[in-house]
Amino acid sequence: MVDQDRKRRVALITGVTGQDGAYLAEYLLGLGYTVHGIKRRSSSFNTARVDHLYQDPHVGDVPFLMHYGDMTDSTNLIRLVQQIRPTEIYNLAAQSHVAVSFESPEYTANADAVGVLRLLEAIRILGLEKDTRFYQASTSELYGLVQEVPQRETTPFYPRSPYAVAKLYGYWITVNYREAYGMFASNGILFNHESPIRGETFVTRKITRGVARIEVGLEDAIYLGNLEAKRDWGHARDYVRGMHAILQADKPDDFVLATGETRSVREFVELAFGEVGRRVEWQGEGVDEVGRDVASGKIVVRIDPAYFRPTEVDLLIGDATKARQKLGWTAQTSFRDLVKEMVASDLADARRDVSGSRGV
Ligand code: NDP
Ligand code: GDR
Q1: How far, CA to CA in Å, does 10 sit from each of 23, 63, 85, 131?
Q2: Ligand 1 mean position to 15 CA, how many Å?
Q3: Is position 79 within any domain?
Q4: Predicted-complex ipTM score
Q5: Closest-lying ligand to the alpha carbon of 307?
């Protein structure tokens, strides 16, 4: 029998205004989905990443719609799921900044842990367990303190921040609802993924934006924390394909998505400056360490202890063999191309800022 609901392709994306939400919405629209996104009320516009996808619903049927909502408001989530009756839910909304989670641990738990439960309960309360597939944005931060490398689906978790602990709950409640209620509920355990629309306070974007602004003369130096942390960095565009593939699998399951390569923050800095033809030389130690541009002798990187975390995740490197074998997914974009694309985009923005400030 043809499953009518599998032919109806209606996605609900929480966190649609974020980096991944924007790439995923674009990808699903390209596949012919009707896409509903949840955005938060804010005092100024917060939809810049998806504005290019938006069409005025007053002109007729449009495939992309946005609704106000919040992961801390169950009545809102239940009502939206009831109205939309999505065939797939991608739960991407989260207070996603690890350092901020040490400052706002309770809010992070509310949005990132209990928020997942609220959405799963909405599906259950509405009796949509067999109609709605659920994707949970789980994270390599779950691995935390190194137990095994490369990290894979069977590697034990050891979360190292309020963010990661909240996400641990999100991971397990997703597994539990799958097992308890037979829901198609899956975790994507995604390693870091970046892009030109990455939030400006995550280290990669902070670096590429800083490099661009130094290059055009808008700033002198980038202030960073731990340069030795190592991450498995991929491109968000590749990872949203994986999220979709996870929900098209024959059965619900949990998958690592990663590139299988790891680089330090220091290497990221060096490569990003290399994109604008600068070579960085390191001098000093600890918080007195600086990065100098060899050609000009100017300091372009400084260390600010404020950016060190109370507990750090030192090394992430993922093994995405299961996703490759079962979903046919692999990361496509090389680390070098990722850095190149991010620097080029930030350079274009910085040049616009310069000409804007000169009034030309
Ligand atoms: P972003 O920070 O770019 O986006 C987060 C989104 O969640 C934004 O749309 C934000 O809204 C929204 N949001 C935050 N709090 C709430 C709330 N209380 N109610 C409703 N919406 C809320 O994150 P990414 O796109 O990078 O990541 C997407 C998801 O994947 C997150 O859950 C993140 O934790 C997880 N993840 C990310 C990885 C990465 O490397 N990018 C790796 C592994 C997991 P607003 O725009 O208004 O702030
Ligand atoms: P992460 O990303 O914590 O891995 O979480 P982030 O880019 O914030 O940090 C990566 C590493 O860089 C070090 N670092 C700095 N980080 C920031 N933000 N700012 C700095 O100035 C700085 N200097 C050094 C950090 O200490 C860390 O070791 C991201 C988020 O997207 C999560 O939501 C997601 O779950 C994980 O990736 C996988």
Answers
A1: 16, 9, 8, 11
A2: 5
A3: yes
A4: 0.99
A5: 2
Q: Which ligand is nearest to the CA of 70?
A: 1
Each residue of 273-330: pLDDT tens digit? 999 999 999 999 999 999 999 999 999 999 999 999 999 999 999 999 999 999 999 9
Within this chain, do residues 29 and 110 fall inside the same structural domain, yes or no?
yes
pTM score, whole prediction: 0.97
Note down the domain range covering 348: 203-228+264-313+335-358
pLDDT tens across 66-90, in order? 999 999 999 999 999 999 999 999 9
Distance CA 188, CA 281 (A): 38
Catalytic residue status for 330: no
**279: Cα separation from own chain's centroid:** 29
Residue 76 and residue 32 share a domain: yes
CATH number at residue 126: 3.40.50.720
Query: Total structural domains in the chain?
Result: 2
Pairing between β-strand 64-68 and β-strand 34-39 as defined by DSSP bridges: parallel
With the most atoms of ligand 1 within 8 angstroms of its CB, the residue from 41, 45, 92, 95 to mutate is: 92
The position carrying tokens 């209606």 is: 10
Residues 309 and 322 grouped into a single domain: no
The pLDDT, as a whole number, for residue 356 is 82
